Amino acid sequence: MRILGQIPHPIIKISVLALNDKFILKLEYDLLEQVYKIRNCDEISNFGTLEKLVDEQFLEACIKRFNEMSKDLYDTFERNDIM
Measured over all CA atoms, what is the biggest interatomic distance in the chain, rounded to whole angstroms? Predict the structure, then answer.
C-alpha cells in the first residue's frame, strides 16, 4: 500500500492510498474511520481525479455518517451498561 497524499479538511483527516488496481479513500474523525475502495480506471486514474470526488456534498454525507456512527457506538455502550 502506497500513500498518494492527503486532502486538506478542517475536521476530517482524508488520506488517498494506492493498492494494486485500487485507490483507497480513507476518512478519519476522532476514533472513527470510513474507507472507500475505488477501482483504478480511465476516468479515475490519479490523485487529482480522486480529489475532485471529495466535494462538499460527499463530505457533508460523510460527516453525517460519522455522527450516526458515533451515536450507534454510544447507544450500544449505554444499552449494555458499559458507560
Answer: 51
- 5 grid coordinates: 497524499
Give the three cell numbers for residue 42: 480511465
Task: Round to whole Å and give the CA distance between 51 and 5.
Answer: 10
At 71, is the pLDDT very low, low, confident or very high (cuts 50, 70, 90)?
A: very high
Where are any strands of DSSP class E within 1-83?
2-7, 13-19, 22-29, 32-39
Give this prediction's pTM. Answer: 0.90
Bridge partners, 34 (sequence order): 27
- Cβ atoms of 43 and 49 closer than 8 Å: yes
pLDDT in tens, 53-64: 999 999 999 999
Q: Per-domain residue ranges for the chain?
A: 2-79
